[in-house]
Amino acid sequence: MPFPRVSAATLLASLLAFAAPVSAIAEPIKNIVLVHGAWVDGSGWKPVYEILSGKGFHVSMVQEPETSFANDVAAAKRVLDMQDGPAILVGHSYGGSIITEAGVHPKVVGLVYVAAHAPDVGEDEGMLSKKMPSVLGKTAGAIKVTPDGFTYLAPDLFPKLFAPDLPKEQAGFEARSQVLAKKEVFSTPLTAAAWKSKPSWGIVAGNDQIINPDLERFYYERAKAPFIVVEGASHSVYESHPVQVAAVIEEAARDVGEAAN
C-alpha cells in the first residue's frame, strides 16, 4: 500500500514540533549575577565574566559598599531587581554570606559558592571561622582595623594570604586597592538561608589561606551542594582558575534550566 504524500511544509512543521521540547530542555538560565567578597571589588570577576559572556550569558557584577551587611545585601538585591528573568547568584568569600541572605529573592533560581561562606539563620561567618580557623585566623596582626572600625588585610601579607597564585604585580595592586570592610559585616547573624530552598553548587579552594578549606566543605555538604576541589588554588581561585569556576557556574545554569522545563 503506498504511503500518503506529505508536503514539505507539513513535514517541516512536524519536525519542529518534535524538536521544540528538546531545545527547551537544553536551554540554560542566561542571567548570572556575581558577588565579590571583602577587601576586593567586582573587577576581580573579569576573567569569569569574559568566559561566560563569550558563551552568551548575561553577566552582572555587584559592587558592595562593604559598609554594613544590610547595605551589601541591598546592593545584591538591587542588581537582581534589574535582571530580565531568573538568575544564578554567585558569591565569593564573604559574598557567600551575602548570597545566602539575598538569595531568597524571587528571581534567584540557583546559588554558586566560590571559596565562600554559607552560614545558616542565626549564624555569622566570624563565629564559624573561629571553630575552623584558617591560616589568616592564626596569623597575628594580619587584619588591620581603622579608628572608625573598618578592616583591611595588611598589604604586605595580602599576596601571601589572599593571592599567592596570582602574578606578583597583580596581587600587589590588589593589596593596595582594597575596599575596606566594616568590622560588623563579619559578625552580623543571617536572617535567611537561601541554600535551604534553592539548589546550590560549591567550589573549594584547596590551598585557601583566608577560609579553611574544611569549613568550605562543611558548608557545601550541609547545603547538600555538589562541589569540586581546585587543588592548589588560593582564595583568589576565581581569578587564578576562571575556567574551572566558570564551568561550575555554567553547570548550575544548565541544570536549573533543564529542571525548569
From TrEMBL:
Residues 32-247 form the AB hydrolase-1 domain. InterPro entries: AB_hydrolase_1 (IPR000073), AB_hydrolase_fold (IPR029058), Sec-Metab_Biosynth_Hydrolase (IPR052897). Residues 1-19 form the signal peptide. It comes from the Bacteria. One of its GO terms (molecular function) is hydrolase activity. The keyword Signal applies. This is Alpha/beta hydrolase.
